[in-house]
Design goal:
Blueprint lengths: L29 E5 L5 E4 L4 E6 L4 E7 L2 E6 L9 E9 L2 E9 L9 E3 L6 E2 L9 H12 L9 E4 L2 E11 L2 E10 L5 E12 L11 E3 L3 E2 L5 E2 L2 E9 L7 E9 L6 E7 H5 L13
Parallel strand pairs: 1-7, 2-8
Antiparallel strand pairs: 2-5, 3-6, 4-5, 6-7, 7-9, 10-11, 11-12, 12-17, 13-14, 13-16, 13-18, 15-17, 18-19
Length: 281
C-alpha cells in the first residue's frame, strides 16, 4: 500500500454541536465483514479529509482522494469479533463503519460505496470551499468570455494567454489558454505554478517558490490546436518584485515548454469578481 494512514485519536466531542443525534453503538452502525486475505475498498463521493481507525488491528491507506483501503493485520480472531471502528470524514459529511472479522474469506466485503443514507452532514472547518463547488465555479469561469487581452507569451509557434482571474472566497481562479499554431500535437507532461523574482540579478540568488494548485479543472493530457484550463490557487499576497508564473511542459522527446508571467497588478484586479457569473441557472 502506498502510504499508511496515520491513526488519529479523535478527542471526545470533536463532532459535538454538528448533529443533535443520540449516541450510537457499533451494533447500530453499518457493519463490514473483513478478512486478512481480502482488501476492503471504501469509495466516497468526494475527497476524504480524515480517516480514524480506532485500533491497530486494521491497516489502512488512501491511494487516491476519495478511496480508502482496509485490511486486518493478522488472523486468529473469532467470527463476529469487532476489530475496529473506522470513521471517515469528507468535505461535507462523515460516516462510521464497524469492522467485523470473518474467518470465511468469501464473506469479506471487497467493494463498498458510501451510500446517501450512511452520510451524516458535517461542516468541516478545514474546508472553506468543497471540491464540488470549486469545480462548478471553475467550469462557469471556463465558459465565460475573456476579460484580459494583454497578458500573453509566445514560444515554439504557440501562444499562451491569460483569459480571466477571479477571486472566489479564499481562492484565486486563473483561466488561461494556449493556441498551438503547428500541426504537432502537444503531449502534456506537467503544469507548474511558481512565484519568482521579476528581475534576476547575477549578484543575488533567485528564490522560486512552487505553488500547489487546489484544483486543475481539465485533466486532458494532450491537445493539437487549442487548449483551455482553470487553475485554482489558495489566496495569497506577494510583493511587486515577484510575479506568478504558469508553465506547461511537454513529454520527451520533443520536450517543448511554454510559460506565462502574471504581475501582481493583474492578480489585484481579481477583486472585481462579478458574483452574477456564479449564480445557479
Amino acid at each position: 500500500m502506498k502510504r499508511m494512514m496515520t491513526l488519529l485519536l479523535l478527542s471526545t466531542g470533536v463532532f459535538a454541536g454538528h448533529e443533535a443525534k443520540a449516541q450510537r453503538t457499533y451494533e447500530e452502525m453499518e457493519q463490514l465483514t473483513v478478512n486478512e486475505q481480502v482488501t476492503t475498498v471504501i469509495t466516497a463521493s468526494e475527497p476524504v479529509r480524515l480517516v480514524d481507525i480506532s485500533t491497530d488491528k486494521v491497516a489502512g491507506d488512501q491511494p487516491i482522494d476519495n478511496v480508502i483501503r482496509l485490511k486486518p493485520k493478522e488472523a486468529g480472531h473469532e467470527d463476529g469479533e469487532v476489530l475496529a471502528i473506522v470513521t471517515i470524514v469528507t468535505e461535507r459529511y462523515r460516516t462510521q463503519y464497524a469492522l467485523l472479522y470473518t474467518t470465511r474469506m468469501q464473506e469479506a466485503v471487497t467493494d463498498k460505496e458510501i451510500q446517501l443514507r450512511e452520510r451524516n452532514a458535517y461542516e468541516n472547518p478545514a474546508v472553506s470551499m468543497s471540491t464540488v463547488d470549486m469545480n462548478r465555479f471553475a467550469r462557469r469561469i471556463w465558459n465565460s468570455p475573456a476579460k484580459y487581452h494583454n497578458v500573453a507569451s509566445k514560444a515554439h509557434r504557440m501562444v499562451m494567454r491569460l483569459n480571466n482571474i477571479y477571486s472566489v472566497g479564499d481562492y484565486f481562479f486563473i483561466d488561461f489558454s494556449i493556441d498551438n499554431k503547428t500541426n504537432i500535437r502537444f503531449d502534456i507532461d506537467e503544469i507548474r505554478v511558481k512565484l519568482a523574482d521579476k528581475k534576476v540579478s547575477k549578484a543575488t540568488n533567485t528564490q522560486v517558490v512552487e505553488l500547489s494548485p487546489a484544483l486543475v479543472l481539465e485533466q486532458s493530457k494532450s491537445f493539437r490546436h487549442g487548449y483551455r484550463n482553470v487553475i485554482v490557487l489558495k489566496k495569497m499576497t506577494f510583493p511587486n518584485g515577484k510575479m506568478l508564473s504558469i508553465e506547461m511542459t511537454e513529454k520527451q522527446i520533443s520536450g517543448r515548454n511554454i510559460s506565462m508571467n502574471i504581475d501582481y497588478e493583474d492578480v489585484l484586479s481579481a477583486d472585481s469578481f462579478n458574483a452574477v457569473l456564479l449564480e445557479e441557472d
